[in-house]
Amino acid sequence: MRPAVIFILITVMLDSMGIGLIIPVMPDLIQEVQGTGLSTAALWGGVLSTTFAVMQFLFGPVIGGLSDRFGRRPVLLLSLVVMALDYLVMAVAGSIFLLLLGRVVGGITAATQSTANAYMADISGPDDRAANFGLIGAAFGVGFVLGPLLGGVLAEYGTRAPFYAAAGLAALNAVFGYFVLRETVTDDIRRPFRWARANPLGSIRQLGRVPGVGPLLIVFFLYQVAFMVYPAIWSYFGKERFGWEPATIGLSLALFGIMMAVVQGGLIRWVLRLLGERGTVIYGHVFDVVAFLSLAFVTSGTVALILTPLAALAAVITPALQGIMSKSVSADAQGELQGALTSATALAMILSPMVMTGTFAAFTDADAAFYLPGAPFLLSAALIVVGLVVFLAFPPKRALAPDAG
After folding, report:
1. 301-311 and 246-262 are packed helices; what angle lies between their axes, rounded to 10 degrees?
2. pLDDT tens digits, 259-274
3. How many CB atoms lie within 10 A of CB 244?
4. Segments making up each domain of the chain, as ranges
5. Which CATH architecture has domain 3-183+194-393?
6. Are the C-beta atoms of 236 and 45 separated by less than 8 Å?
7. Are 292 and 341 in contact (CB under 8 A)?
8. How far is residue 302's CA from residue 139's CA, in Å, rounded to a whole number?
9. Rounded to an integer, what distance in angstroms lies between the CA atom of residue 377 and that of residue 384?
10. How confident is the model over 35-90, as pLDDT tens digits?
11. CA 311/CA 290 separation, integer angstroms
12. d(CA 184, CA 119)
């Protein structure tokens, strides 16, 4: 594998690893800073996640458009440097408002995942893109493995230790990328940066006009809203339902990440050959409904640890959808497409944490009419059903053979 591709995968891994590093300590950190109970801390966690997502939503198309104009290399390297500085600021934050500022900057730097996906599209043939997007997903999964594990271990040294670790890793990867990352944007596919296209809603609307892409964007968005239930409430769910400590929360997320990496890094290629991209999307939706319903009602921590990696078997949805949509746009619009998908993901991250943490708080509060910590998973299952209905009702214009992956 080429060093530049390794850098791209490490960058995506660090994006998810940086998030995973801090997830196990966020309940304790917010309670430490605010002096509040767990239900209130969960609501503040939703605010921080939403702030992060708002910035990612606003800047996803901007970053994608800048990478189409100035190249992938400068965008990726600069974002890593700023990311490292941002984690240092959060490491010394003594108030919720400074943590909030850190999430503002972090959301902007995380918008570069669109550039990483665009780079992968640049170097891939049309029929290889879904599988190669799976490598991106696998890297995300590996980061989800290492992040929570390290976060749980580092939490023993204080709630700030994971932030210092994330800063160091981002800085090291920036140095690595400086030496190995070559530019893939040539004059043949370079295009001017236009603010009209950099508008997140305008970018999504523009791509929605491409035949067959509009409904797929809706399906992608609904899936992202449902999937965000994991980072939004998992730490609070584990602590409330099973009394888990940060180390156990980290372990459970690591199990999910391991299976996610296996699925998107290897298993997806087999599934794509067997079912095709369309069949893969359908399979993922059906499996996700079963997984969410199971997690909604589980009462045993041991059973939850078993279900967690199995739930990741549905992680084939995103790369399969990306592969279908990537074939529908031109080579000079791959950055715009990935920027729009980043914005759709960020928009989901804006809505999902507030909705999911609000649902969790409503069903775990002392005055709750009905106690059900797993209620957010029921909501996610319903969203997945709606997404599947849309996908079946509006099939892609281009028929995909079983070996299209």
Report:
1. 30
2. 877 887 778 888 888 9
3. 22
4. 3-183+194-393
5. Up-down Bundle (1.20)
6. yes
7. no
8. 27
9. 11
10. 777 777 777 877 887 787 778 777 877 887 788 888 889 989 999 999 999 989 88
11. 9
12. 7
